[in-house]
Amino acid sequence: MNTRSVVIGCGHYLPSRIVENSEFEATLDTNDEWIRSRSGIERRHFAADHENTSQMATAAAQAALDDAGLGADDVDAIILATSTPDLTFPSAATMVQAQLGMTRGFAFDVQAVCAGFVFALANANALILSGQVSRVLVIGSETFSRIMDWTDRSTCVLFGDGAGAVLLEAQTGEGTAQDRGILSTDLNSDGRHRELLYVDGGTSTGTVGYLRMQGNQVFRHAVGKLAATATTAMERAGVTAGDVDWIVPHQANIRIIQGTANKLNLPMSQVVVTVQDHGNTSAASIPLALSVGRDRGQIKQDDLLVMEAIGGGLAWGAVVLRW
Ligand SMILES: CC(C)(COP(=O)(O)OP(=O)(O)OC[C@H]1O[C@@H](n2cnc3c(N)ncnc32)[C@H](O)[C@@H]1OP(=O)(O)O)[C@@H](O)C(=O)NCCC(=O)NCCS
After folding, report:
1. Which tens digit of pLDDT belongs to each residue from 159-191?
2. Is the peptide bond before 80 cis (omega within 30 degrees of 0)?
3. How far apart are CA 210 and CA 191, in angstroms?
4. To which CATH superfamily is domain 2-173 assigned?
5. Which of 20, 31, 125, 295 lies 20 to 30 angstroms, CA to CA, from 237?
6. CA of 262 to the centre of ligand 1 (A)
7. How far is the CA of 38 from the centre of ligand 1 (A)?
8. What is the pLDDT of residue 1?
């Protein structure tokens, strides 16, 4: 018998403002056709001035709690993956804790940029397997619109805002790949590549800064690293591509998503794709895809999922989970 971290609820939040590709044509030398063909993105949501990362995270977390039929004080911990916290500190996770009305347990942020949700899931799983907690809210929430250089057409058209959350619960499994819950995780980073994707602000500048990216260089790393981490995680879980029902990839670029699926020998009909509607929402993209994929009727109980993500650092990883 093994302890497993099982998803018992999920939810998401998207700000109401939807920006179509064509809206950028008024201020930038770009067009819908370029953005769509190079990235697969057609539109994205942007937070309103009064909305921030913790509020969106709270809305997604509340939806996950409602989905599970539980209250905030039934949860032992909150792990929030974000690179765009409301303030440098306290953590956005503690703000969510307060906004949910949760008066016990603990909360902290994880920062691994676009791989953040995978890193947060792995940390939550480790806390559950070590017996320290029984229920953990794992959230990804981002307001990347606040770190965009609106004069840089090579980045500002690619990102969006939103939040997604899952509620994990310790349950007992048989110790086989048929168990529900997290079956394996694989985390990686290589800090030598920090110039490829970073924000040029922080305590060293006294400003929040703007996202800077060498997109074609990130692209070159992405497919190989994503396929490798997904393969490692599947080997650890004792499953093969033939066992997988859904790839739930980080939603940065449709060509990266297609290239990775191809390398893993899985058809696009088994990939949850939301990049056309959300753009790249960094750490929020996988939990958004989980929640939207579940709502669409794609992801069903007992389906075998492989999640994979890469982002600034570089940091990348994968999680194999039976829903
Ligand atoms: C960003 C990305 C879509 C660019 O596509 P690409 O095919 O690599 O294009 P390049 O960066 O080589 O740029 C090609 C040309 O398009 C231009 N261009 C860039 N953005 C443009 C835009 N929004 N509209 C029109 N032209 C644009 C460039 O200036 C360049 O022009 P040049 O050849 O005259 O210099 C692509 O590299 C990508 O998606 N990379 C991965 C990024 C990513 O997912 N990052 C997040 C990981 S978490």
Report:
1. 999 999 999 999 999 999 999 999 999 999 999
2. no
3. 19
4. Thiolase/Chalcone synthase (3.40.47.10)
5. 295
6. 22
7. 7
8. 80
